[in-house]
Specification:
The complex is a heterodimer of chains A (208) and B (212). By secondary structure, chain A is an all-alpha fold. Chain A has eight helices and no strands. Chain A has a domain of 123 residues: Cytochrome c-like domain (Cytochrome Bc1 Complex, Chain D, domain 2, Orthogonal Bundle). Among the domains of chain B are: 29 residues; 95 residues, no CATH class. The chains are: A mainly alpha (208), B mainly alpha (212). At the A-B interface, helix 1 and helix 3 of A face helix 1, helix 2 and helix 5 of B.
Chain lengths: 208, 212
Amino acid sequence: MRKFLAYFLTFWALAVVAVVGVAGLRGSTSRKPPLEFFSDMDHQPKLRPQTTAKFAGFADGMSSRLPVPGTVARGSAFEASEFNTGKKADGSFVDAMPVPVNAALVARGRERFAIYCAPCHGAAGDGNGVTTKFGMAAVAKFHDERIIKMGDGEIYNTIANGKNLMLPYGDKLDPQDRWAVVAYVRALQLSRLGKKEEIPDAVRATLK
Amino acid sequence: MSDIFPKWTNKLPLMAGVVGAVLGVSVLAGITYYFTPKYTRVGYQPKQPVAFSHAIHAGQIGLDCRYCHNGVEKAWFSNIPAAATCMNCHSQVKKDSDKLQLVRDSFASGQSIPWVQIHKTPDYVYFNHSVHVNRGVSCVHCHGEIQKMDEVRHEKPLSMSFCLDCHRDPAAFVRPNELVTKLDWKNEGFDGKKAVHDWKVQPGQSCSTCHR
């Protein structure tokens, strides 16, 4: 009995070592895709975004399709209005933004600016964002006179369609958000243009 | 009669009992340990076609997740950025790097880069990013500390019990909404219980919440 137990336990210990040796521990890093013991209905013949569509018959295999030329997606900004293009009917840029500017719009603009513009233009619009340390060159300063005098529509257009070395951000910001960012750029510019007299007395007293 | 079964066979039931018990317990332990997404998924780190590093882009440069995953607040799906997004910077930064060859090719041709998908729920599960990130649930709870990873690694099991652990009691997991993409945020005095109550956060627990 004792002998048998000894054999059995040795065998058992070897088996455990073998299993753990082959299968590894939980959470160990692996290049291989997750195991599926029972794959149930995990993979159904339906399209998921941004995958390779094997059954759909698209020549390039991409499940997320580009719009067919000449079509517009529902809800997308297709109308040639000032709101959507930042341009007047004659093609010149609008001077003042066609949306009401309020605290909520500027707050939204500030948040979007921090995500999409600050990496290059810097948090205060000085053109010294973090990427300039890594070789981003020629980033515009928003406090340049040229950009201060520029119509709102032209800044809007730069965001939507890019300009020279700057690529477009229209795919990341819908028209409302683009105007919000323009409003925040204006706020940044004004922050450097204020006069001492414009500061409320109570606040001015605390300044040195 | 006495010679048909030798004496040791008297212990046979005992031996069978011991062997059965040890084997049974071991097999059960093995199944509990291995037959779970905690083993099957966690640690998955495929080789990506481009050596893109979140540690550089999200950590060191400090890009917000939404700079690239810009659909995450609006859609169920969190998009992988197109090559055009990379080219915003890489048209100037490291513009001749070999590591970026595929990105430049993709930008020129419009063919997507064949990124390998890491996190995926089964097709019978309904998941939605926007409901979570607009309700103060951070990426870090479901994806781990991405901003420190050179290569993305599957950190969390994303099993049904993982989802439910939070859905049953989200108070410990919510934070102010504007901090959702600040993965290294530390809770200093934010009252999750109060937020859950005030914002009326009610993650569903019925089956039809996630299986519809």
